[in-house]
Each structure stands twice: as structure tokens, then as C-alpha cells.
Amino acid sequence: MISPWVVAGWCLAAYLIGGLPVGWLLVRRKRYGLDLRNFGTGNIGTSNVYRHAGIDIAIIVGPLQFVQGFAPVIASRLAGLPLSASMLIGVCAVAGNGWPVYMKFNGGRGVAVATGAVAALSIAGLIALLMCFTWGAIRGRIALAVLVAFVLLPAVAFFFGGSEGWIVGSGCLAILVLLLLRRLEGLPRDIRVYGHFWRRLYQRLVFDERPGRPLMGPRTDHGADSLRH
Fold first, then answer.
1. Above 50 in pLDDT, residue 229?
2. Taking the CB of residue 15, how many other CB atoms lie within 10 A of it?
């Protein structure tokens, strides 16, 4: 029987590892202090790194973020922790990326970290994610593909997970909820400023789009002002 305190320690470690802002740090170092939060989507993940700092940094950030989710989970499996604990550890890594203590609890979208966590637990789930990501890249609809991928993921993990599929499926459902919550970050403020509740909600959930945050170029929304001063 594993002590709850041991599991809690692993979860805290996963949260802290998953929350390391590797994209933000590398861009600041390699691009003369450029703050990703002032550009494009304002996110500190691989996509925004690629668009505003270049592919040379993005090809480093992507795998690093994948490892941030993969390493804590696979380490817990190798340490003999039960599958339910490993799944919880993976969820905590994703939560760390979305709400990192290092960045005042406003981080990335958690997609790469979540993909790494899933890879450590479900090969079928990883394949399903990669297939959807590939489709999105071909069609130019990455945000939509990510949504479809993680909506399908709990069912894939459940049906291909054998006798413990319900554990992995439940964890993947929790990851989906976290990713959706990150997409809804700042929604109340956007509605107050720009109105149109249902349109804003649809654009956020399906396409992860926000007013004043173009894919390329500096942010023009009100939230960018606090970062510049």
C-alpha cells in the first residue's frame, strides 16, 4: 500500500516539473529578452515559440515540454506506483504547465505536456493524438485538431486499456477538462470588453481564438498592457 503522502510528493514534483516555462526561458535567452506573452496568442508553448522566435527554438521546446509530461509519469511507473497514482501524476504535470507557480499561475495550453503524459500510459492514446495532430497540420486547423484529439482520447484509452482502461480513460478525461479550462482563460474579461458571449465561447473552445491576439504580431488586447509596464 503506497502512502498518500508519497503520492502527494510525486504529484507536487510533477506539478513543478510540468510548470517549468522552458519556452519562455529559452526565448528570453536566445532572442535578447523577447517576452512571448506580448505576442501572438500570448502563450508560452511551442506554437507561439515557432511563430515568433523561430523553428530553431521550437524544435527544442516541443520535445522538452513532451518530456515534462512523460518523465514524471514513466518514473512513477518504474518506481512501482499503481496506475491510478501515475495517472494522477500526469494530470498534475498538465496542471503545472497550465497554471505554473513560476508565471503567476498563467502558463501554456498544456498540449505537449499532456501528450507526453499520455505517451507514458497509453500507446493507443498516443497514436490517436498523433493522427489527429497530423490531420490538423495538413488542414491548417491545429487548434481544432487538438480539441478533437483530446475529446476522443478518453474513449480510446478506455477501450484499448484492458482491465484498467477505466483508470487511464478517467485520467484522460481530467486532462481534457484542464485543456478546456486553459482555453477559457480570461473569457469573462473578453465578454465584458467585446461582448457576444456565445461567439466568444465558440471561438475559444473550438479554435482557441481571442480578440486582440493574432497568430502573428504583437498583442493588442487590454491584457497586454500589464505585461509591458
1. no
2. 21
